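User: Design a sequence. Structure:
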């Protein structure tokens, strides 16, 4: 009788251990997925934003749309940076063809993946992914053309911002 009890106890212990192990294994990104996204203001310094805008800027100001930087003496943000968890992959955007003529293009060597939205020859938005995070630079007022020096500055700035994401 004691042997049967030991075997039953061993089986129950094994089953409970497996159940607890499985309950604790929710995937490698679970911790990051439970984190709140960092503020866009924490990913760029005022100097980095000024480098991208091409002139001195006010310190970044947070809003529902992320963090915005306006040139000194102006009130409209020329640069906005938003960080969020994104269920959409770059392929989602690459398949879109909005009626306004905006086209999405893949960007190489940036984050896990990245795309830009281009309309009438100007880069409007750069989106890049790292882990569960998507960063979105809105730069429509900066007159950045793909393959220009301004685009290289945008890409370098995005790399710095992505490096600060955990």
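Assistant: Done.
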């Amino acid at each position: 009788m004691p042997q049967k009890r030991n075997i039953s106890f061993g089986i129950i212990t094994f089953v409970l251990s497996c159940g607890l192990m499985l309950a604790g294994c929710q995937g490698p990104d679970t911790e990051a997925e439970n984190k709140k996204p960092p503020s866009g203001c924490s990913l760029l310094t005022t100097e980095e934003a000024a480098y991208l805008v091409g002139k001195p800027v006010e310190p970044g100001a947070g809003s529902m749309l992320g963090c915005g930087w306006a040139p000194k003496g102006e009130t409209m943000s020329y640069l906005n940076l938003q960080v969020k968890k994104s269920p959409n992959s770059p392929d989602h955007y690459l398949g879109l063809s909005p009626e306004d003529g905006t086209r999405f293009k893949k960007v190489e060597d940036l984050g896990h993946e990245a795309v830009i939205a281009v309309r009438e020859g100007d880069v409007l938005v750069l989106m890049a992914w790292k882990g569960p995070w998507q960063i979105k630079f809105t730069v429509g007022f900066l007159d950045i053309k793909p393959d220009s020096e301004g685009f290289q500055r945008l890409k370098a700035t995005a790399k710095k911002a992505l490096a600060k994401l955990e």
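Strands lie at 61-63, 66-69, 79-85, 103-106, 113-119, 122-130, 133-138. The longest strand covers residues 122-130.
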